[in-house]
Design goal:
The protein has 189 residues and is an alpha/beta fold. Helices cover 32% and strands 21% of the residues.
Length: 189
């Protein structure tokens, strides 16, 4: 299992790179990665090519997986498949860099349920599905990559990918709702 902090978004609504934003004197990418580390999962940061230089000011080059240019997709799926190409035998626990409120208990629940069920993908579901706090299995990602290469993916959204993988969903307890808060714009802060 490898943890992936997805930082490669354009952060258009926020107006600046969310992974490099600071809270409690720590970068958001560092906060989320630290939570993955506490679950004993080695992790990497998924970034796009325009971000690499800025992230190298804070992280080691071995900590970064830059979007693979052979995957011509916009959005989180490009980052996910790029990490899969680098670590094809690894299941990937994905957490968005703006989910700074996620707690260790959430990640451990995700990992335990995945290990118990061995499904192609598993994600939390409350009022909505949380595709960026999820685990995607290596065989499931291989299936998606193959479909992409054969031009058989009709949609690149993470919701569509979860459907294609017949994902299992974990209900979000009411007391965990705040852990899944995304910070997409300055108004969300």
């Amino acid at each position: 299992m490898t943890g992936v902090v997805l930082c490669g978004g354009q952060s258009l609504r926020m107006g600046r790179d969310k992974g490099l934003m600071v809270s409690a004197n720590r970068l958001w990418a560092e906060i989320v990665r630290g939570k993955l580390v506490q679950t004993s999962i080695p992790s990497v940061l998924s970034v796009n090519s325009t971000q690499k230089e800025n992230y190298l000011r804070h992280f080691d080059e071995n900590d970064l997986v830059v979007d693979n240019s052979a995957i011509n997709i916009q959005g989180p799926l490009q980052g996910l498949l790029s990490v899969h190409l680098k670590y094809p035998d690894q299941d990937l626990m994905v957490v968005a860099c703006d989910m700074i409120n996620v707690e260790i208990i959430v990640l451990k629940k995700l990992l335990n349920d995945f290990n118990a069920s061995r499904v192609a993908a598993i994600a939390f579901k409350g009022e909505r599905v949380e595709p960026l706090c999820a685990i995607y299995s290596s065989p499931g990602l291989a299936k998606i990559l193959s479909a992409y290469r054969q031009s058989k993916l009709s949609n690149y959204s993470m919701m569509y990918i979860l459907e294609e993988l017949n994902a299992k969903y974990i209900p979000i307890p009411e007391e965990w709702q705040s852990y899944f808060r995304n910070f997409n714009s300055a108004e969300d802060l």
